[in-house]
Hints:
By secondary structure, this protein is of the alpha/beta class.
Amino acid sequence: MKKAVCIISGGMDSALSAKIAQNAGYEIIAVHFNYAQRTEQKELACYRKITDALKVVKSYEIDLPFFEQIGASALTDKRIDVPTGGLEEGVPVTYVPFRNGIFLSIAASIAEKHGAEALFIGVVEEDSSGYPDCRESYIKQMEKAINLGTRDQTHITIEMPLVHMKKSDIVAKALELDVPLEYTWSCYKEEEAACGVCDSCRLRLKGFDEAGAVDPICYATANQ
């Protein structure tokens, strides 16, 4: 059976991406990264629930503590406040420098080990927070670099099935495919109840609203 390595953060986008891979007939090898992000424990708990629901054949939980040492992001440096005033122009302070490049590099080594032919990543370009490492053009260049830097018999395709979807489309597709959205987490700030006001919460809530659906997770505010 063909195999795919799926990067699963514990969020809605990566959970849907992995479900799409499964529906395409891939055995799922899941990988999750703990990188000292503010909601690390919640994301890990969500990842485990998602992978249980997907019945993945193999799971990797990779610790990357150096992101905290590098800092330069509100997600990994608690001295930098997570913005709560709404989406801003340009690259936000929640961007973690070259995170997806590092994630894809590690996922590629796992894919080569297992003879997987695809990597699935839930990047979203058109309705995202403006992260440069979520662009389709960038991911395509990473695919070329990975295949240049692996064995000749290794041929890995990076699949990004959500890249041109809007958040409302993602919500609708996740509901259609019975993705367990109650196990997913998007909040940048909190681990008990989602804050409802950070960029990620705002995008998620907007997506559910435009899809005409109710978000199943708990929020600390009345933004639902």
